[in-house]
């Protein structure tokens, strides 16, 4: 029970980190596209 709880917590951290990274990549892509235009 405790181990699964810890796993869930780490999953939340990982998903949050990935979400932040994805947002950063999207913003950078938009800036690059705007620069090319």
Mean pLDDT figure: 82
Structural class computed from helices and strand pairing: mainly alpha
Could you estimate the helical fraction of the residues in percent? over 70%
Pick out the low-confidence regions: none
Tally of strands: 0
Order of helices and strands: H
Please summarize the sheet with the most strands: none
N/C terminus separation: 54 Å
The best one-word shape is rod-shaped
- Which band does the percent of strand residues land in? under 5%
Q: What is the alpha-carbon Rg in Å? A: 16 Å
Count of discrete alpha- or pi-helical segments spanning 4 or more residues: 1
Structure, described:
This protein is mostly helical and 37 residues long. It has a domain at 12-36. The chain is built from 1 helix and no strands. The chain has one helix at residues 2-36. The longest helix has 35 residues, at 2-36. The protein starts with a helix and ends with a helix.
In brief, what are we looking at here?
The chain is built from 1 helix and no strands. By secondary structure, the protein is mostly helical.
């Amino acid at each position: 029970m405790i181990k699964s709880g810890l796993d869930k917590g780490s999953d939340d951290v990982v998903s949050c980190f990935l979400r932040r990274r994805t947002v950063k990549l999207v913003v950078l892509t938009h800036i690059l596209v705007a620069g090319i235009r």
